[in-house]
Amino acid sequence: MSSSAVRAVVIHAPHDLRIDSVPVGEPGPGEVRVKIARGGICGSDLHYYHEGGFGTVRVREPMVLGHEIAGTVEKLGAGVSGLALGQTVAVNPSVNCGTCRFCQAGMPIHCLEMRFYGSAMRFPHVQGGFREAIVCQAAQAVPIAAGAGAEIAAFAEPLAVCLHAIRQAGTLAGARVLVTGCGPIGALTVLAARHAGAREIVVTDVTDAAVAMALNIGADHAFNTAARNDALAPYEKDKGQFDVAFEASGHPAALAGAIAATRPRGTIVQIGVSGTVPIPLNVVVAKELNLKGTFRFFDEFAWAVDLLGSGRIDVSPLLSATMPIDKAVEAFTLASDRSKAMKVQLAF
Predict the structure, then answer these.
(1) Residue 302: exposure state from Cβ atoms within 10 A (0-12, 13-18, ≥19)
(2) How many domains is the chain partitioned into structurally?
(3) Theoretical Cys-Cys bridge with 219: which of 5, 203, 255, 327, CB 3.0 to 4.6 Å?
(4) Could you say which residues of the chain have pLDDT below 70?
């Protein structure tokens, strides 16, 4: 297989982000080569940039970052159908093995051999998608409706995360919903919850910019709990008012607030990730709460692409800036400032 070199955004160590040349080969049978146009900087990318990883996961070799990617089909491998040259696609960054016991049981999210772009969880690391071109399985390249650009398609991965969280909650039709934490995932959860039929959405965050964004995209109420730590007190009355809460910050205080404000037999979906946190089990037990985790996505990726392409979910207000690949460091710096940016994308 012949290969050529393309530019890529590579993390070498904390705050050591470089534009390196990496090889890209020709697509084999069942594969396509995608010319990447846009890549969204995610919270995990920022953890690699600032800290060299998260938890026990550490970068141990140079790794191409990025998993929120979209572009156009550049080359087709043998036997590929359903895709056309020049077609805009979102690239699904997860590849499950299909054979382990979880894949066989219909739980591919929990694949024992999952390969996820831009992840140091495995060694050698799984290289990411912040590069000018990538070869992937044809099934990973999901076409978006004509007229929707790569900047919209690149939201498919984080939106899929939120759609999976929505599914974990069950029906939201007519529900009163709380979203704690309004970074990109929290904001997309607001949009997904509204699409799913929530009648009232209340959002909390600790920055004024995030609160303003929540209101801009359709939240009914939004509060800065750093300035008003009793903002949820009215919703805690009579054992809680919310049917469903989505905790998207990973902060212990946010989870405690969600537990207090969710009604008996309500559901709390934990999206945000952190370490060990205290949980008032007496309240969880007494109110018979359903506390659920949610992790990544599977078939929700194609669903996300469809919603984005049709415009049924409009993510355009979330795109704060688009910067060229040679300004990757500046882009990561901007993406790290929650007072100035919601979602920053790289242009390739």
Answers:
(1) middle
(2) 2
(3) 203
(4) 1-2
Shared domain for 42 and 113, answered yes or no, is yes
Task: Please say whether the beta carbons of 91 and 141 come within 8 A.
Answer: yes
**pLDDT value of position 55:** 85
What is the rounded CA–CA span in Å between residue 316 and residue 175? 25
CATH of the domain at 37: 3.90.180.10
Question: Nearest Cα to 335, choosing from 130, 88, 133?
Answer: 130
Say yes or no: 285 and 332 in one domain: no
DSSP secondary structure letter of residue 229? T
Residue 172: per-residue pLDDT: 98
Residue 304: inside a domain, yes or no?
Answer: no
Residues 197 and 281 in one domain: yes
Position 2 scores a pLDDT of 57
pLDDT at residue 1 in the model: 45
Q: Work out the burial of residue 303: count CB atoms within 10 Å of its CB; fewer than 13 is exposed, 13-18 middle, 19 or more buried.
A: middle
| Same structural domain, 89 and 59 | yes
* Amino acid making up residue 244: V
| Residue 183 and residue 261 share a domain | yes
- For 321, the 3-state DSSP assignment is strand
